[in-house]
Amino acid sequence: MTSRRRLRKSFFHGVEPVSGNQLQLLQSGAGFFPALIAAIDAAQAEVHLETYIFNADSSAEAVRDALVRAARRGVQVRVMIDGVGSRDLPAGWLDALKAAGVSVLTYRPIVSGWLSNPHNLRRLHRKLAVIDARIAFLGGMNLMDDFEPVRFDAPRLDFSVEVEGPLLAPIHRSVRHLWRLVALTQLHPEADTPALVEPSWPTDGHVRAAFVVRDNFAHRRDIERVYLAALALARDEIVIASAYFLPGRRFRKLLRKAAARGVRVHLLTQGHTDHPFFQSAARALYRDLLAAGVAIYEYQASELHAKVAVVDGRWATVGSSNIDPFSLLLAREANLVVDDAAFARDLQQRLQQAIGQSVPLDPADWRRRPWPQRMMSWLAYGAVRLMVGLSGAGRLT
Asked: Is 48 an active-site residue?
């Protein structure tokens, strides 16, 4: 194996990539929802869908109606929602799905006092759809309109990937495994039904990629480790967009070391946030990163919800996992890791456009940040670490 091939293999850090895939990067709802609905409408045998948020709005309604149409024509349709993220989904929507023959499971349904129990931080945060074991959609997109709940002039910035090719085998296996696991715990009658179709990939794809998950069993650290390997091996440029950015010490150290050896490091974070507490906690980390030469930008055009990165114009990841302890230590997550220059270039160009719509943070200004703001940020950061510790998840490396 040549040194270049060894370097590329080490970027995956033990996760085995496969070649021959066809990938299409989808940005925001305008790219994601029409593609997803078209695939559901073309389904002949089965649809598996997992989402953290299933919101009651026009975009989600269009997906709901496509699921209903599929079930009524005899397609096996399975939907898994999270008990916290989708807690406001109207009962009428669930009734409509079930009346049409859609099977719906709720991952870890909420019970009285759920906010006071740290173990309830373990959520289904994956956003996955697999249709006929032939096409999949994976990324950060919830079933939620780009302009909900806060309307900006531009749509929410988020990404998903349409996947065809050999990766359908592990993706399909993963959604079926999670469905069976949750169904067994809830005594659901469809816990052990066999797959109606086997994965197939009639494409001429050429992209090399891996499907990487985080769970609470055999894959507790896989997504974190793949990120760390990419940062350690970066030679030219790192571009990261993360809606919620609270990495561990090793992650931050690798960013600083990359900047010190001349790698251009760009971090895109939220300017407008739906969780001010977590934004305050994240800002506790900015001063040291800025001082080390990491460029940080706060996105202003709309809400940033992306969880993506590009390294050296070749390695890229798109998925549901933020770079924070809730994603990397607690939630069920799913990311795609790609080794392909064309895909990485496409994603990087979109991120560069977003950086142009952002405010760059000035290291000198950050050094002069008033002490009450610094104190509040560190208190928020400490509170987040305490919540994660009480959950029994351990800590980020």
From this structure: no
